[in-house]
Amino acid sequence: MKQLVMLVVMLVRGERRAFLRGLALAVTVLAMGVALLGLSGWFITAAAAAGMAGIGILFNVFAPSAMVRLLALGRTAARYGERLLTHDATLRALSHLRIRLLQGLLTRPYRTLERLRANTFLNRVTADIDALDGALLRLVLPALAGGAVIVTASVALWLLVYPSIALILGTGFLLLPTMVFLLGQRIARRPARQAEAAMQASRSRLIDLIAGRDDLTVYGQLQAAEDHARNAHLRHSTARARLDRIERLTQAALDLTGAGLTAAALAVGAMLVQAGEISAARAAIGVFAALALGEAVAPVRRALSEIGRMTQAARRILPSLAVAAPGGTREDMPGTPSLALRDLDYRPGGSGRRVFAPLSLTVAPGEIVALTGPSGCGKSTVLLLAAGALEPSGGTVDIGGAAVGAWSREVLGARIALVPQRNALIAGSIAENLRLAAPGAAPRDLWQALEAVQLAETIRARGGLDSRLGFRGAGLSGGEARRLVLARAILKRPAVLLLDEPTEGLDEATAQAVMAGLRRALPEAVILLAAHRRVEIAAADRSMALDRTES
What we know:
Elements: H1 2-14, H2 16-52, H3 62-106, H4 110-114, H5 118-160, H6 163-211, H7 213-218, H8 222-274, H9 280-297, H10 299-322, E1 339-345, E2 359-363, E3 368-372, H11 379-387, E4 394-399, E5 402-403, H12 409-415, E6 416-419, E7 428-429, H13 430-434, H14 443-452, H15 456-462, E8 468-469, H16 478-491, E9 496-500, H17 508-521, E10 526-530, H18 534-539, E11 542-545
Parallel strand pairs: 3-10, 3-11, 6-9, 9-10
Antiparallel strand pairs: 1-2, 1-4, 4-5, 7-8
Helix pairs in contact: 1-10, 2-3, 2-5, 2-9, 3-5, 3-10, 5-6, 5-9, 5-10, 6-8, 6-9, 6-10, 8-9, 8-10, 14-16
């Protein structure tokens, strides 16, 4: 619960004025509801008493009826304004939270990000943000507004009706629903978590089933995948059924609380009327106010079923927001920087065996250097270290005469391009995929980059830059997807280009042409590549072999 409170405070702080206005309107809505029913009760009872006394013709019905209409219309307008303000502020706050969440995740170690499954992660983030929407709109704001109205109504009843009635309703509506909520959320916590976990599993498995249906069919696993998705859905349904039962019991407890307090107000009011302490009309105010205060505690039932989701979401999101890997501050990288690795060493987790023997290497602007060696010797790790994605265990990585960590993230993002082995393409047009690296690139620039990687003719045959790709770039072969990613790297015009097996999946002639095209497109760039093919090594100015180390 502590993490949820911290996260709610963070969200409200960014939209403080809008939330305060929305809270004021929420209080107004509930207060008008209490006043409306209280006034109506007084009006009806007073009018009846005047009629029975034979003085009904002298009773002023116009002022109370006008006030009733004013409260009814004002309550509707205030409700609309409250919904508009609070929902708009919540959406803005959650939009900022999404950005901060993604920025926080980007500061995590590269190897951690590599292990994230896109489907699972996106489903979880979506569900967590949705849960926090409920924390503001269905828990915090209703609780604050309800508490404020109960206290205000109690003060008004103390002054207008009688202190004992005010104490009964005030303490009753503040304490009893709170006890119901605390007890109910303790009971609902486990099924709420189970329902949330099952819902996310169901979503992920359904997406995996749809995205991989062809492969699953080929390998005869389609039915098994369907069964896994169905089982997750059944678990979610079971957990939701338990939550629904708890909700119904909670609602019954709240209804009994409201009915009991209303009966208590009626009984005490009747005794006070008989004792001559107050009039019947004033006693009616307390009874009808008790009926109206039931609205102030009604959100308890809805919040109860979601409190488990909210707390779990806060526990997952808050640490990601708290991650803050400080970047450097230098902004003046030279136009043609060199790359220098000095006694570079890396041990996973900061201890254990070295991935490779200490490495010293300098790559000048306009030079291509190939890292060679057997699989697993650390070529990809060196590229990640050079990009600043991993922190070296020993030695330094210098770019442009300064340590890679000294440069700001903006500078590193603009001047370094890393093309890993896994292609990263999106569903969209060819142009949209390319412009991820250069949003303002003109069509001519896009075609030049495609020409450099020998992909222009293929794209023209497919319909040009506007031709669409499917999920994760579906529609291109492995080699074509690889070249499209290389073209995107060219568009970035990096000073340092880091390539991990760039010609994988290409025939030798195409691979030679691609390597030559990269050099022509980026004549002054530092190019460091992890190579395992002769054509890549032959295209380099020199090569350096990495060896495994046992130390």
